[in-house]
Amino acid sequence: MLDSTDIEILNILQENGKITNAELARQIGMAPSGVLERVKKLEQKGVIDKYEVRLNPKALGISLSTFIQIKTADSVGSSEIGRKLAEIDEVQEVHWTAGEYNYLVKARVSSTETLALLMKQFGEIPGVRDSRTTLVLDTLKETQALSLQFIACKNPRKSAK
Fold first, then answer.
1. Which end of the chain, N or C, is less packed with Cβ atoms under 10 Å?
2. pLDDT 10s digits, 74-90
3. What is the pTM of this model?
């Protein structure tokens, strides 16, 4: 179980994963060694999964976001086609879903021409039967940060931000 200090650390790291241990300790009001120990424990428990850099897709010319629903001939419980979809470089997310379509895919491409090539790749995967594509006109919010405000805490030091 996490305590309020762990949650405070996680909130700060979600905002700035590049923060130094000394600065993190200063913001928490703890010794750097204590904060480092907590971060290591959060990593060992799998709470902190990994650290990565978020690139600006527009600055790289990859500004067209799409959400694509994929209908497949997969048998119930099979995710073989989903794994093949996930191997495609332009695909950022693959979600196995309930309902008429089996997968929801998020992809980024540079143009409608590259989107057409991507759709062709999808169609070449055996078992893909149909798709429905939605183009994103503007993104108002996009984050991988998790809201931690309702996580149960033990020994609350102070309320999490």
1. N
2. 877 788 999 999 999 99
3. 0.84
Strand partners, 70: 103, 131
107 and 82, same structural domain? Answer: yes
Helix (H) or strand (E) holding 66: strand 64-72
Instruction: Write phi, then psi, for 116 (nearest 5 degrees).
Output: -60, -40
Is 14 among the domain residues?
yes
Residue 139 has pLDDT above 90, yes or no: yes
What is the rounded CA–CA span in Å between residue 48 and residue 153?
17
Each residue's pLDDT tens digit, 99-123: 899 999 999 999 999 999 999 999 9
Contact between residue 72 and residue 81 where contact means Cβ atoms under 8 Å apart: yes
- Cα-Cα-Cα-Cα torsion 109, 112, 115, 119, nearest 10 degrees, comes to 170
> Looking at the structure, do residues 118 and 69 belong to the same domain, yes or no?
yes
Show the domain range for 45.
Answer: 2-53+146-154
Which helix (H) or strand (E) segment holds residue 43: the answer is: helix 32-44
| Domain count for the chain | 2
Q: What is the CATH number of the domain that holds 45?
A: 1.10.10.10
